[in-house]
Write a structure and sequence with these properties.
The protein has 8 helices and no strands. The N and C termini lie far apart (40 Å). By secondary structure, the protein is mainly alpha-helical. Helix 3 packs antiparallel against helix 4 (64-80).
Length: 139
């Protein structure tokens, strides 16, 4: 379903960014295209997923202006549709993308992610982000 395709796509794009391996990027295009096809068929519940995966792809391609625009779009679409967990994940991924580009904006986006995760009740996720990004909070 939708959630499975998105989870697969975001996980594979994440691995592609982390490992710099093209096999993950190539594999991620399958669920990404599937979600895009559902959007073209009129399913409004995939808009935010497509925007977030589009942002991940733009980030991998080094298109920082486009990636930023698409991450913001994914956050807005998720929030408007009531998908707080989607806004949280998009904010987190955007913050992690920005870590080497703009530390202040990364801090802002990570703070937003934590706020969204808090609204969603994901306390363990908040602790994990604080532990994983201790350097960000000290900047």
């Amino acid at each position: 379903g939708i959630a499975d395709a998105f989870a697969r796509g975001i996980s594979l794009y994440s691995m592609a960014r982390e490992t710099k391996s093209t096999k993950y990027k190539k594999e991620a295009t399958r669920p990404h295209k599937l979600l895009k096809s559902w959007l073209k068929k009129g399913n409004p519940n995939v808009q935010h997923h497509v925007a977030i995966l589009d942002a991940e792809l733009a980030a991998l391609q080094g298109k920082s202006t486009e990636a930023s625009k698409l991450y913001r779009k994914g956050i807005v679409l998720s929030t408007r549709a009531g998908f707080i967990h989607g806004a949280a994940l998009a904010s987190e991924r955007y913050a992690e993308y920005l870590l080497d580009l703009d530390k202040q904006e990364a801090l802002f986006q990570m703070s937003n992610a934590i706020e969204y995760y808090g609204a969603w009740g994901a306390k363990a996720k908040i602790r994990m982000l604080h532990e994983r990004h201790t350097d960000l909070w000290q900047s």
